[in-house]
Automatic annotation (TrEMBL), chain A:
<feature type="transmembrane region" description="Helical">
    <location>
        <begin position="283"/>
        <end position="305"/>
    </location>
</feature>
<protein>
    <submittedName>
        <fullName>Sugar ABC transporter permease</fullName>
    </submittedName>
</protein>
<feature type="transmembrane region" description="Helical">
    <location>
        <begin position="178"/>
        <end position="200"/>
    </location>
</feature>
<feature type="transmembrane region" description="Helical">
    <location>
        <begin position="240"/>
        <end position="263"/>
    </location>
</feature>
<feature type="domain" description="ABC transmembrane type-1">
    <location>
        <begin position="88"/>
        <end position="304"/>
    </location>
</feature>
<keyword id="KW-0812">Transmembrane</keyword>
<feature type="transmembrane region" description="Helical">
    <location>
        <begin position="92"/>
        <end position="113"/>
    </location>
</feature>
<dbReference type="InterPro" id="IPR035906">
    <property type="entry name" value="MetI-like_sf"/>
</dbReference>
<comment type="similarity">
    <text>Belongs to the binding-protein-dependent transport system permease family.</text>
</comment>
From TrEMBL, chain B:
<keyword id="KW-0472">Membrane</keyword>
<feature type="transmembrane region" description="Helical">
    <location>
        <begin position="189"/>
        <end position="211"/>
    </location>
</feature>
<dbReference type="InterPro" id="IPR035906">
    <property type="entry name" value="MetI-like_sf"/>
</dbReference>
<feature type="transmembrane region" description="Helical">
    <location>
        <begin position="115"/>
        <end position="142"/>
    </location>
</feature>
<dbReference type="InterPro" id="IPR000515">
    <property type="entry name" value="MetI-like"/>
</dbReference>
<protein>
    <submittedName>
        <fullName>Carbohydrate ABC transporter permease</fullName>
    </submittedName>
</protein>
<keyword id="KW-1133">Transmembrane helix</keyword>
<feature type="transmembrane region" description="Helical">
    <location>
        <begin position="250"/>
        <end position="268"/>
    </location>
</feature>
<keyword id="KW-0813">Transport</keyword>
C-alpha cells in the first residue's frame, strides 16, 4: 500500500435494486461526515491558494484598498532580484546536504540500534538518546546552538583546547561559515525521523534473506549491499523526497539563528519571502515569490507521488 | 543482525566497534541537550566561564523561578495550552467524521477528495501565510486564538485523517454492522462502537496533533502581534531579544517549553512511533 494515501474504502454495501428516496439520502450520508473537512480544506487551502495567485498578479494588495492588475511584473521583480537568486542557491545547498547527511546518519544509527549484539535495555536507552534532537521544537534548537556556537561558547573552547583553531570563531557571524553551520544544526535536528523510519524498515526485512545470503557465503559488507539496501530502497527514496520538501520549508531555524544573514549568506526562499511580506509589506511581490516556492514544491511532490505509485 | 553470525575475536572486535560508534552517536545527539540542562542551573555570569563546567558552584533553580514567577512568561504557556488543546480536540472531531466516511462508505469522488487532503501536506506554509494574513485580518481574527487554532488545522487535519482512516480500516466492519442490525444508524455505530474501541488510535493522533500545534512557529509569528497573544516558541525568541544574554533563563524557558512534548512522547513512545511509521509513512 502506498504511503501517504488513504487506503481504498471497502466495497459498497449491496444496494437495493430500486432507487428510492431513502437510497438517495443514503448516498449523501458520507458527504455529511465529510462536510466539516471539505469546508476546512476550502477555507484553509483552496481559497488561500487562489488568493495568493491573484495577489501575485496585482499591485498594492492587502495594505491598500485599490489593487491594480500588474501582469507578470511581480514575477520579473522576484526572478531578477539577486537576493532571490542567492536564496535559491542557498536553499538548494541547504536541502541537498541536509538530506544526504540525514540519510547517512539515520541509516548508520538505525543499523547500530538494530544490531543483534545489543541487549534490549541498551537499545532502549540509546534509542531515547538518539531521538532527543527530534523532541525539541525548532525555537529551542536554535537557542541551544546559539549558546554552543557563541564566540566564547563551549564549541570554540573545545576546538581551541584541541589546537584546531587559534581564536574563537564567530560561526554564525561569518558569511563564509554561517550557511554550513545552520545546515549542520538542521542535520542534527532532523536525522531522528529518518532513523525511526529506517529502523522500522530494517526490522521488516525477513531474516531468511540474510540466512540465504550466508549460505551463499556473503560477508557482512555484501549482505549490506545485496540485501539491506535493496530492501530499504523504497523507504529511502520516499524519505529522501519528503525530507527535501520539509527542509525547503524550514523557516524558524534560519529566522532565529541568523535571520538570513550575514550578508544574505543564509537567506532561504522562505526567509526571503517572509521578509518581503512582513518586513517590507511588499505583499504582491512576496506573493509572486510564494507562488514560485509552491511550484518548486509541486515538482518535488510530483516525484514523491510517482515514487509511491511504483511501490 | 548481520554480525550475529561472526565468531570469536572478530565478534569481539565488531562489538567494540559498535560500542564506540554508539557512544560517539550518543554524544553527538545528547551533549547539546545536556549542555542546555546544565546552563539552566548556572548563574548567568558563569555561562561562558573558562574552562567550562557542567555543574558550577552556584548551582540553583533561580532561572526557573524567574521564569515561573513572571506573568508575561506564564502567559506564553497559557496561550500555547489553549491553542494546542483546542486544535487537538477540533482536529480529532473533524478527522474522526472524515475517516469514518473514507473507511466505511463508497461514494463518488472519494479518491479525488482523498488526493486533495493528502496534497495539503505538501503546500509550503510560507505560501499560505500571506493569504492567511489577508484572511484573518479581513475576518477580524488577526491576533486572536481562533485565528491561530483555525490555521494550525491545515497542518494537523490531513495527518489525522490519514492516520485515523488507516486505524478504522484495521477494525472489522462486522462491529458496526451489528449496531445496524439492532436498528441503529451509522451515526450510532460510529460513536457507540468505533470511537470507544479506537482510543489507542485517537491517543496517537491526538499526541501528534498537540505536538505540531505546540511547536508551530511561522503562523504564530505572523498572525499575532501583541506579547499577550504569543505562544511559547515565539516567547523563547522574545526572551532572546529582551535580555540579550540571559542565557540561563533562555535555557530554563526552553526546557519548561519542551516538557509537555517530552512527557507526552515518553508516555506514548511505543504507540506513537508505531502509529507514525505505520499510519503516515507506510500506511
Amino acid at each position: 500500500m502506498t504511503s501517504l494515501t488513504v487506503e481504498k474504502p471497502p466495497p459498497a454495501e449491496p444496494e437495493a435494486p430500486t432507487r428510492t428516496k431513502k437510497s438517495v439520502a443514503r448516498r449523501l450520508i458520507p458527504f455529511g461526515y465529510l462536510s466539516p473537512t471539505i469546508v476546512l480544506i476550502v477555507v484553509l487551502m483552496v481559497v488561500p491558494i487562489i488568493m495568493v495567485i491573484s495577489y501575485s498578479f496585482r499591485d498594492n494588495v492587502i495594505v491598500q484598498e485599490n489593487s491594480v492588475f500588474a501582469g507578470f511584473a511581480n514575477y520579473t521583480d522576484v526572478l531578477t532580484d539577486p537576493d532571490f537568486v542567492a536564496a535559491l542557491k542557498n536553499t538548494f545547498i541547504f536541502i541537498t546536504v541536509s538530506m544526504v547527511a540525514h540519510l547517512l546518519l539515520g541509516l548508520g544509527f538505525a543499523m547500530m540500534l538494530n544490531s543483534g549484539m545489543l541487549s534490549g535495555v541498551t537499545k532502549a536507552i540509546f534509542r531515547v538518546v538518539y531521538v532527543l534532537p527530534w523532541l525539541f521544537t525548532i525555537a529551542v534548537i536554535a537557542v541551544i546552538w546559539r549558546l554552543l556556537l557563541d564566540p566564547s561558547g563551549v564549541i570554540n573552547y573545545v576546538l581551541q583546547t584541541l589546537g584546531i583553531i587559534q581564536d574563537g570563531v564567530n560561526w554564525l557571524g561569518d558569511p563564509g561559515s554561517a550557511l554550513w553551520v545552520v545546515t549542520f544544526v538542521n542535520i542534527w535536528s532532523g536525522y531522528p525521523f529518518f532513523m525511526i523510519s529506517l529502523l522500522a524498515g530494517l526490522q521488516g526485512i525477513p531474516g531468511e534473506l540474510y540466512e540465504a545470503a550466508s549460505v551463499d557465503g556473503a560477508n557482512p559488507w555484501q549482505k549490506f549491499w545485496n540485501v539491506t539496501i535493496p530492501q530499504l530502497r523504497p523507504v529511502i527514496i520516499s524519505m529522501a523526497v519528503l525530507d527535501l520538501i520539509w527542509t525547503s520549508q524550514q523557516f524558524a531555524l534560519i529566522w532565529m539563528m541568523t535571520g538570513g544573514g550575514p550578508l544574505n549568506s543564509t537567506e532561504m526562499l522562505s526567509t526571503f519571502t517572509y521578509k518581503l511580506a512582513f518586513s517590507e509589506y511588499e505583499f504582491a511581490t512576496a506573493s509572486a515569490s510564494a507562488v514560485i516556492v509552491l511550484l518548486l514544491t509541486m515538482i518535488l511532490a510530483f516525484f514523491y507521488v510517482r515514487q509511491q505509485r511504483e511501490r | 543482525m548481520t554480525t550475529a553470525t561472526l565468531k570469536g575475536p572478530r565478534r569481539t572486535l565488531a562489538k567494540a566497534g559498535l560500542i564506540v560508534g554508539l557512544t560517539l552517536g550518543g554524544l553527538f545527539a545528547g551533549l547539546p541537550v545536556l549542555w542546555m540542562l546544565s546552563t539552566s542551573f548556572k548563574a548567568n555570569g558563569e555561562v561562558f566561564q573558562n574552562p567550562p563546567k557542567l555543574i558550577t558552584e552556584s548551582f540553583s533553580f533561580d532561572a526557573y523561578t524567574e521564569i515561573l514567577g513572571n506573568g508575561a512568561q506564564l502567559r506564553f504557556f497559557l496561550n500555547s495550552y489553549i491553542v494546542a488543546i483546542a486544535v487537538t480536540v477540533l482536529t480529532l472531531l473533524v478527522a474522526v467524521l472524515a475517516s469514518y466516511a473514507f473507511s466505511r462508505f463508497t461514494f463518488p469522488f472519494s479518491k479525488t477528495i482523498n488526493a486533495v487532503i493528502v496534497s495539503v501536506q505538501a503546500v509550503p506554509p510560507i505560501t499560505l501565510v500571506i493569504p492567511y494574513f489577508g484572511l484573518v485580518v479581513a475576518l477580524g481574527l488577526y491576533n486572536t486564538y481562533p485565528g491561530l487554532i483555525l490555521t494550525h488545522m491545515v497542518f494537523t487535519l490531513p495527518y489525522a485523517i490519514i492516520m485515523m482512516t488507516a486505524y478504522f480500516n484495521t477494525l472489522p466492519k462486522e462491529l458496526d454492522e451489528s449496531v445496524k442490525v439492532d436498528g441503529g444508524n451509522s451515526w450510532t455505530a460510529l460513536w457507540r462502537i468505533l470511537v470507544p474501541i479506537s482510543v489507542p488510535g485517537l491517543i496517537a493522533v491526538g499526541v501528534y496533533t498537540f505536538m505540531i500545534s505546540w511547536n508551530e512557529y511561522l503562523f504564530a509569528l505572523a498572525l499575532t502581534r501583541t506579547d499577550d497573544m504569543r505562544t511559547v516558541p515565539i516567547g523563547i525568541q522574545l526572551l532572546m531579544g529582551q535580555h540579550s544574554y540571559e542565557w540561563n533563563q533562555m535555557m530554563a524557558m526552553s526546557i519548561l517549553g519542551s516538557i509537555p512534548v517530552l512527557v507526552l512522547f515518553l508516555i506514548f513512545q511505543r504507540r506513537f512511533i508505531g502509529g507514525l511509521t505505520s499510519g503516515a509513512v507506510k500506511a
